[in-house]
Amino acid sequence: MSGGPLTSHVLDTSSGRPAQGLALTLFRKQDDDWVLIKASETNSDGRCSGFLDREQFTADTYKLRFDTEEYFRRAGGTTFYPYVEIVFQVVRPGEHYHVPLILSPYGYSTYRGS
């Protein structure tokens, strides 16, 4: 599968467009700490992939951190949520995991996508 076993997509409902250039960071839980795996940003379609390859993707607990404050600041606005962290568990690392974020300055939602 192109893009690797983990992908994300951010949609900005306040503008009705993909959230281009939003910084996000992937972490893996190790004991009581979060270990940085990769920092990246969304492309012109609000998508991000290539966090890790299939061999690196293990059954574990992960966290995606989205820098929403900087994204909205660049757009000339503010947000109630300076960042969004989505913690999720990978049970079957052979499957594809898609973690979308639907975003506005005063709310957000997520789900496991396909």
Structural class: mainly beta
Count of DSSP H/I helices: 1
Q: Nearest-angstrom radius of gyration?
A: 14 Å
End-to-end Cα distance, whole Å, is: 12 Å
Structure description:
The chain is mainly beta and 114 residues long. It is 6% helix and 47% strand. The longest helix has 7 residues, at 68-74. The protein is globular, with a radius of gyration of 14 Å. The termini are close together.
Q: Topology, please?
A:
Layout: E1 6-12, E2 17-18, E3 23-30, E4 33-41, E5 47-48, E6 60-66, H1 68-74, E7 84-90, E8 97-104, E9 107-110
Parallel strand pairs: 1-8
Antiparallel strand pairs: 1-2, 1-5, 3-4, 3-6, 6-7, 8-9
Sum this structure up briefly:
The protein is 6% helix and 47% strand. It contains 1 helix and 9 strands, in the order ββββββαβββ.
Question: What keyword list fits this structure?
Answer:
mainly beta; 5-stranded mixed sheet; 4-stranded antiparallel sheet; 9 strands; 47% strand
